[in-house]
Amino acid sequence: RLVILFTDELGHISHWRAIMAGSLAGMVATVATYPTDVIKTRLIVQNRLEPSYEGILHAFYKIYHQEGLLALYRGVSPAILGAVPFSAGSFFVYINLDKIWREPVVHFTPLQNFINGCVAAAVAQTLSFPFETVKRKMQAQSPWLPHYGAVDVHFTGMADCFRQTVKNKGVLGLWNGLTPSLLKIVPYFGIMFSTFEFCKRVCLYRNGYIESPLNYKLTPGVDQSLRPQELRELKLLRRENFEPRKSALEN
Q1: Residue ranges of domains in the chain, CATH in brackets
Q2: Three-class SS state of 238
Q3: Is residue 230 pLDDT above 80, yes or no?
Q4: Mind telling me which residue stretches traverse the membrane in this protein (predicted)?
Q5: Beta-carbon count within 10 A of 127 CB
Q6: 53 Cα distance to chain centroid
Q7: Residues contacting residue 53 through CB under 8 Å, at least 6 positions apart
């Protein structure tokens, strides 16, 4: 729906408008699912010997009644802001990788698509990781948890968290934990991008636009501007026109 808002009269969308649409989509998804992210962080940082929460539902109930509804959205600001460099970085890198490979995107192999996804995710995660660091600290900090959630700095808000982290840990402290994060997200996005491209080829093949799901070689004589339903109707009409009609005597 967001992509449609940024398309022109011909249905085309520029790279930067696509980045804006992707960033907005990431923000909407972040806000919609954010309470579950807070609960996940609390379950991770709690003391296992004397746990504060017994499970997901208990954590949701306890956080809501002890700290209020806004506690379930603590740290949402850096999460939303971090969606912008992540979406922009990943998309910008991904659409420019064809210049590195020196061949069009349609000729990429599954391995190339996997590498492209990995590189895009690595750059995007590195750019947005300071926001991820601040978000986790804000999620974990709570007066109801032992040692205030075991956060290494104490702060009053997002800007203060940035300031206190840089003051106590240095600028590189904003990137603490980047390596394990990359080990998780890089192969994830590599598999996601390569799977997406392969599924797209399968769909194009099943609808008759290309000759094989293993490449993008166009099917001869097929108008690529037709929609799948229009293409099926055209094939059906051609089939009916070419089939020999039965005579009245045969009927």
Answers
A1: 2-176 (1.50.40.10)
A2: helix
A3: yes
A4: 15-34, 71-94
A5: 18
A6: 29
A7: 39, 42, 43, 46, 59, 62
Centre a 10 Å sphere on the Cβ of residue 182 and count the other Cβ atoms it contains.
16
Contact 140, 151 (CB under 8 A): yes
Structure token digits, residue 54: 């017994």
Largest CA distance in the chain: 96
Contact indicator for 137, 145 with CB cutoff of 8 Å: no
Rounded to a whole number of angstroms, the distance between the first and last alpha carbons of the chain is: 52
User: Residue length, the chain?
Assistant: 251
3-class secondary-structure state, position 63: helix
| Separation of CA 82 from chain center | 12
Here the tokens at position 134 are 């601040």
* pLDDT band at residue 162 under the 50/70/90 scheme: very high
**pLDDT tens-digit series, residues 77-126:** 999 998 888 877 887 787 777 777 877 777 788 888 899 889 999 999 99
Residue 100 is encoded by which pair of tokens? Answer: 């590195």
Do residues 131 and 81 touch, judged by C-beta distance below 8 A?
A: yes
Query: For residue 91, what are its two tokens?
Result: 């998309």
| Rounded Cα distance, 174 and 130, in Å | 5
